[in-house]
Write a structure and sequence with these properties.
This protein is mainly α. It is 31% helix and 3% strand.
């Protein structure tokens, strides 16, 4: 039987009880421009977030007829970047309440996790025995000078 993932305030990472800070009421310091540094993260890094929050909430069939995954996910540059971005986005959006968490799931979490774990996604060639090399990057031609708008003035 599959259990329901723990509530955010019941998460246990490495035996330590971690609690997500309570949502701030309207008119709190966050509404008046509170610095992001005063909004502590629940998870120390992307790996803790993935193990403690994301994967317990993303239960899918694994294998050839289901989703693809590799335990060494962090060695795949695409996956590392996306999981890190998902973690940081979740850490920011959770401060804006339940409605933003639904937006996070709809617009970020499900589309990106579905893409990462697709049979033709980054883990398409993962084998528990071989650990194959990652495929080569697609070829890219240099665009002409000034083709793209620059962030540097």
């Amino acid at each position: 039987m599959i259990g329901i993932p723990p509530n955010d305030d019941e998460l246990d990472m490495d035996g330590d009880e971690s609690q997500e800070p309570a949502a701030q009421p309207a008119g709190s310091p966050q509404d008046t421009g509170q610095a992001e540094s005063e909004r502590p993260f629940v998870y120390e890094d992307a790996q803790q977030w993935l193990r403690g929050y994301a994967l317990p909430r993303y239960l899918r069939k694994y294998g050839p007829s289901g989703r693809a995954w590799a335990p060494n996910w962090y060695e795949y540059p695409e996956v590392y970047s996306v999981i890190t971005a998902l973690w940081e986005t979740w850490e920011q959006m959770r401060w804006d309440g339940p409605q933003q968490i639904l937006v996070f799931y709809r617009d970020y979490f499900y589309p990106l996790m579905d893409r990462l774990t697709a049979q033709d996604g980054p883990f398409h060639a993962y084998d528990k025995v071989m650990h194959p090399q990652l495929p080569e990057m697609f070829p890219v031609a240099e665009a002409p000078e000034g083709y793209f708008r620059s962030s540097v003035q």
